[in-house]
Amino acid sequence: MAEALIQVGRVAGAFGVRGEVRLSAYTEDPLALVSYRTLLRQDGSLGLTITQGRPAKGGLVCRCLEIETKEQADALRGLRLFVPRASLPEPDEDEFYLTDLVGLRVETPEGAPLGAIKSVQDFGAGDILEITPAEGGPTWYLPFTREAVPQVLIGEGRVVAIKPEEVE
Length: 168
Known about the structure:
The chain is mainly β and 168 residues long. It folds into two domains: 5-87, Elongation Factor Tu (Ef-tu), domain 3 (Beta Barrel); 98-160, PRC-barrel domain (SH3 type barrels), CATH 2.30.30. 7% of the residues lie in helices and 43% in strands. A six-stranded antiparallel β-sheet has the order 3-4-5-2-1-6. The chain has a six-stranded mixed β-sheet with strand order 10-9-8-7-12-11, with no helix packed on it. The protein is elongated. The two termini are 33 Å apart. The mean pLDDT is 90.
């Protein structure tokens, strides 16, 4: 199985006219992108290689080996940037990365199986868990809120969830 990739940023467009690029950073410290240096595309191929970076509103302004002109930077606008999961620091005991949820069992508070987490999505209104039902059938979505998912037990390989009444 290929190593999981974690999205850490996105190309926001050109900065100035000399080939610098603006990156939106999804890391706690935007400068972490500079320390990763090599950022990948979602398929694992090379995205950008950062040679220099400085903080800017909403992220970073960087120089990259692959970009020499404003036009090249603008052409990459929207490119999602990833690093291997192993590149990230280990989370604290009570923290986790959203990617760590994928594959976990989903159970009711009473322990009845509801399925497994297929993916974590964000369509703009917050994180949503896509659940593959234990009994088969189409996937369903569950808001990733404390009310809907009161417990995340990474070490046990499961989450406790309250299934919405709308989902049959």
